[in-house]
Automatic annotation (TrEMBL):
Source taxon at top rank: Bacteria
Signal sequence range: none
All residue ranges annotated as the VOC domain in the record: 4-119
Protein name per its UniProtKB record: VOC family protein
């Protein structure tokens, strides 16, 4: 059997805000709350469960995306007034080109850095 990460818990200050933010970045839907969690299914194998019971903790979640998702995520970050930049915690509003693709780090209000990067063309 192949090992697949199925879900992980993302500690945030407000579970619905956190779920909606990630869902907006990735162009997916935030699910209805299930118990203490607000789930975001990012693909067939992985769900991120946002949990606000114990407070927020900074984190880093990296997503390999295609160009269309990358462009839409960057537009969402701009429209939403989110801080973003070319390196973790660097709010320079620049896109990096590490490894030949494009990459950005989008910061949420809880200190989570969502890294979005494209594959080498």
């Amino acid at each position: 059997m192949t090992i697949v990460l199925n879900h992980t818990i993302v500690p945030v200050g407000d579970r619905m805000r956190g779920a909606r933010l990630l869902a907006g970045l990735l162009g997916v839907e935030a699910g209805e709350p299930v118990g203490p969690f607000a789930p975001v299914r990012v693909n067939a194998d992985l769900t991120l469960d946002f949990d606000d019971r114990f407070g927020a903790r900074p984190g880093h979640y990296a997503f390999l995306v295609d160009d269309a998702v990358f462009d839409a995520a960057l537009a969402f970050a701009e429209r939403s007034g989110l801080a973003w930049g070319s390196a973790p915690r660097q709010v320079d509003r620049q896109v990096n080109h590490l490894g030949g693709g494009r990459g950005v780090y989008v910061l949420d209000p809880d200190g989570i850095a969502y890294e979005l990067f494209t594959a080498v063309p």
